[in-house]
Amino acid sequence: MSLFPPSAETPVAGAAVPGPRRRSWRLRLLAVPGTLWVLLALVIGFTLVDPRFLASANLQGLAYALSPLLLVATGMTLVILTRGIDLSSASVVGLSGVATGLALHFAWPVPAAALLGLAVGTGCGLMNGMLVSVGRVAPFVATLGTTGVGAGVAIYLTNGTPVVGFGPTISTLGSGAVGPVPTAFVLAGAVFLAFAAVLGGTRFGAHVRAVGGNPEATRLAGIAGRRVVATVYGLAGLLSALAALLILARDDSAAPRPAVGIEFDAIAAVVLGGASFDDGRGSLWGTLAGAATIALVRNGLTYTGIPTNWQLPVTGTVIILAIAAANLQQRHLRRVRDSWS
Amino acid sequence: MTRLVVPATRVVALVILCGALAVAAPAFLTADNVINVLRQASLLVVLSAGLTLVVLTAGIDLSVAAVVALTATVAGGVMANDVAWPLACLAGIGVGAAAGALNGGLVALVGLPAFLATFGVLYVAQGLAQGAAGSQTYSGFPPAFLFLARGDILGVPVLILLAAAVAGSCALLANRTAFGRELYVIGANQVAARLSGVPVRRRLLVVYTLSGGLAGAAGLLFAARVDGASADISTDLLLPTLTVVVIGGTSLFGGEGGIGGTVLGALLTAVLLNGMNLLDISSSLQLAAMGVLVVAAVLIDGATSRLRVARPSQLSTVPSAPTR
What we know:
Chain A is mostly helical. Chain A is built from 13 helices and four strands.
């Protein structure tokens, strides 16, 4: 039993932290700064190895690489907050990119083609959402199935080769910049901020946290948990489609499998950001730090001279170690927190 | 009696499927094709047997396909350096077991969710395979090695004998040993298992290592079958493997199913894949079909599981009474 009466600001969902609010802030921040320190260390380390790391050309490349990941990781955060997972991001990116690419190839106007891609991505996401919420299919299976369907259809539609030949509008979108900042990054940043506002400041955002934090209480409170879950997966699909548009603009082509492993990076970003899989804790700002870390690791590795062949397993191992460490830290935190109640 | 209902429906489905294919594709019932299907099913059995045991504990191993690629490239690379093939096989299985042990450690000791841990190992294994082998394909393996997947003993393909041995031993392990019983209990209710004295973490470590080791063996057999080992030998193999286990009746919720179901699932999946090939369905659409199939199988499993066994809501925190 709590020693202190619940305050008016006690959150609706998730385990309320007993004790003065001062201590709870410190606890909630404990998970994230670890990643921020790692981020800082990486930046310093890579700059020491090769000062060209901080050159504007490299930073712009970093921003380009970060943009699709940030979008996908935003959607992944929402999904993980509902105790789910989305393994289909790469395939949804591929399929919606292919849809847009084929539309552009057939001389559709750019806005219409983009809308088609977004619709395809959202549709895939909603399919995931329905399978998870109504069909009660385990999220990893549902999204794994979507991976197969998305990749299969995308490869079939393109015969395995990327779609090319778009107009000049696309390239300006892809390589344009607002001052020194690439347009793609501005777009990704704006979308990210919008979602941060939704998650933190709207009733829907509170419902998302509620579903993951305590599904039983959510149900008893009359919140339409299934609709929230389905919407969250739909949003993840929408964000993957947006990422596909960015990639299409950057590459000036639409490949059926353009971003292999992006869901792995996105999950890693979310976990590094301090989210947990089974009680709806996490924040988009943490995900931002995590995504930046992942992008930095991938980008900076090219400066260390490790042969390209080995970069994938190296980053994979680093990420697994980071996830394991974050998880152990989470459990330690939980034990400390539980010992107070 | 109810225990026989589930396999019976699979057998019926298999018969219907074979019948439909025999009509739609005359080449299906030729002796060559049937042996081909049985070989494919045997490969799937070896690959999925360990996975079945993992799923029995309400876990999952998404890395099996990547482990196949890794062990195939490791063994291929070893043999390309003129090392004796039995040593190469040992190396391959060892690598698979190591990957499995890593999975087990992440799940049992670190406490990561199984899908996440094995998903991570999937990427590391695939990355290692690509890092070690690059884009090359090892080939020209010794005939004795190829015999494992291509030869016959007294008219019966060696692959089928190997699959039968693997399936038989895993079935014995699951049904006739305390270890197997403990796996079922862990799957049905992990908390109750732990409170009953089952060394849950140790069992999970073992079962994931077994899954990795068997995936490694399967990788060797895949390489032997096509006389080639490359990093992309097992692209898109994950979905069929999951399908085999779920279609066979082993529930992803744990505590139900077994190797017998997996064998039937392997036959069904092999027939399906073969049929799609004979009907000239492009491999990309086959991939999409596998995606639909695995989801459909899990949907049906979820729906019927609530009919068969009273199971507490996965989201509830109230521990359930043991169901078996």
